[in-house]
Write a structure and sequence with these properties.
By secondary structure, the protein is mostly helical. It has a single domain (about 1-20, about 30-390), classed as Sodium/glucose cotransporter, CATH 1.20.1730.10. It has helices at about 1-25, 30-35, 40-50, 55-65, 75-100, 105-115, 120-150, 155-205, 205-220, 235-240, 250-260, 265-295, 310-315, 320-355, 365-385, 390-415, 420-445, 450, 455-475, 480-495. The longest helix has about 50 residues, at about 155-205. The termini are far apart.
Length: about 500
């Protein structure tokens, strides 16, 4: 009963934040980016929470539980990528989006930055966002369903709808303000749970017993769980590290940089955000590793490896703490899903509805269209997630690769190179997205099975970069476009 009370209180707090944010949302700018007034702490926590979805508390611990520390290479790649994203992209993007007609979304920024292909860039980039984000949203819905299934003993379909409605509600009501404020709470819960759980395992069973349990498990499975290099090929390590490339193209993370109140806030946010990230990722790895030892030592079999954090919490803590920890898992799911729903909503409302159908639509009208789009995308994501065998990690990795390859090189080059042409940006973006979709089936068709295991983001990122740069060599850039870039750069250098 205590678990349900704690869980219920958490949901009420989040919905309360949504209602409060509703009263503070005056226009579409507020709904999408919170009026660009987020401080460093909220920016860091919101960027972290929107990034670290259910895979952090379910997918990653589950992978470590099954295969050991060889699955932890992804942690290294993500940490490096997040740091470089803050260092290289964050500040420039904040200033550039403001200087380019106060662009509220990534497609709008591309359209303003590369005006000769304005309409095409809006359509293509928005289409890419909708395609990959719908898959991304589905991963959040799956993770939420598995949580409620485990917690409340529901069947998968009922749990699916229950979890989705919880997130949709406050995103629908409060927009970006609700998402960013709730993200701050959710990020705090996540780090609390991820540090507490492995510490409690160590306090419950001795280090020697832990090692013996892992050795005993290794003898049965043949997997050396403590070996970072076990069964890991060069392609496997490179693929895991390449997850870091994805950060440069994730619209829901880049939106956090765009919403910051200043470049100075972003510099502070980097220190807060990277520290939080290292602790959370380390905690997630420890949960999978120590969880395996604990359940082996206690001779308990888990039917689903991705539920290791949930089951570990249930057996180790009193019901009140379990309620808080399960709330943290829901927090991880909700924070990312809400950010993704908001980005999809922004893409449809700002870039399609206002851009092509209702150019003179009022701010109130846009807010309500945005809310309706949140509902529409949610329904589609629920349909995709309807298969109970869906893997959180698989859905996340595909969407992550799509955004990283399609947008990452174009974002970086648009902020650093004044000579990138509009056609080059368009063809680069398209080539990156197509490469991600086509890579695996093409390699399998050609019989190149080893290359089919290479993470799609690598060839996609390389192809996008190559096409964008080489195409720019053969296309001139209008002097006014170069001048606008120089003005934005000068503004950044003045304010950084």
């Amino acid at each position: 009963m205590q678990i349900y009370i704690t869980f219920g209180l958490y949901l009420l707090v989040i919905l309360g934040i949504g209602l409060y944010a509703y009263r503070s949302t005056q226009n579409f700018d507020d709904y999408i980016l919170g009026g660009r007034k987020m401080g460093s702490f909220v920016t860091a926590m919101s960027a972290g929470a929107s990034d670290m979805s259910g895979w952090l508390l379910m997918g990653l611990p589950g992978a470590i539980f099954l295969s050991g520390l060889s699955e932890a290479w992804i942690v290294v790649g993500l940490t490096i990528g997040a740091y470089l994203n803050y260092r290289v992209v964050a500040g420039r993007l904040r200033i550039f989006t403001e200087k380019y007609s106060n662009a509220l979304t990534l497609p709008e920024f591309f359209a303003q930055r590369f005006p000769r292909q304005k309409k095409a860039l809006k359509i293509i980039s928005s289409g890419i966002i909708l395609f990959f984000f719908t898959i991304y949203c589905a991963s959040g819905v799956v993770a939420g369903a598995k949580l409620f299934q485990s917690l409340l003993g529901m069947d998968y379909t009922t749990a699916l709808w229950f979890g989705a409605i919880a997130t949709i509600s406050y995103t629908f009501i409060g927009g970006y303000l609700a998402v960013s404020w709730s993200d701050t709470i959710q990020a705090s819960l996540m780090i609390f749970a991820l540090i507490l759980a492995p510490v409690m395992v160590i306090l419950t069973i001795s280090w020697d017993d832990l090692k013996m349990a892992l050795e005993a498990k290794s003898a049965v499975t043949g997997i050396p769980y403590s070996n970072w290099l076990h069964n890991v090929s060069g392609i496997g390590v490179v693929s895991a590290l390449a997850w870091g490339l994805g950060y440069f193209g994730q619209p829901h993370i880049l939106a956090r940089f765009m919403a910051a109140d200043s470049v100075a806030s972003l510099n502070k946010a980097r220190k807060i955000g990277i520290t939080w990230m290292i602790l959370c990722l380390g905690g997630a790895v420890a949960v999978g590793y120590f969880g395996l030892a604990y359940f082996t030592e206690r001779n308990i079999d888990l039917a689903n490896a991705e539920s290791v954090f949930i089951e570990l919490s249930k057996v180790m803590f009193n019901p009140w703490i379990v309620g808080i920890i399960l709330s943290a898992i829901l927090a991880a799911i909700m924070s990312t899903l809400s950010a993704q729903l908001l980005m999809c909503s922004a893409a449809i409302t700002e870039d399609f509805y206002k851009g092509f159908f209702r150019k003179n639509a009022s701010s109130t009208e846009l807010v309500w269209v945005g809310r309706l789009m949140v509902l529409l995308i949610s329904v589609i994501a629920i349909v995709i997630a309807h298969d109970p065998n869906s893997k959180v990690m698989g859905l996340v990795s595909y969407a992550w690769a799509g955004f990283g390859a399609a947008f990452g090189p174009v974002v970086i080059l648009s902020l650093f190179n004044r000579n990138i042409s509009s056609k080059a940006a368009l063809w680069g973006m398209l080539s990156g997205a197509i490469t991600v979709v086509a890579w695996n089936p093409l390699m399998r068709y050609l019989g190149w099975d080893d290359l089919s295991k290479l993470y799609e983001i690598i060839p996609g990122f390389l192809v996008c970069s190559f096409i964008t740069l080489t195409s720019s060599v053969f296309a001139s850039v209008h002097p006014k476009v170069q001048q606008q870039f120089d003005e934005a750069l000068a503004e950044f250098e003045t304010r950084c």
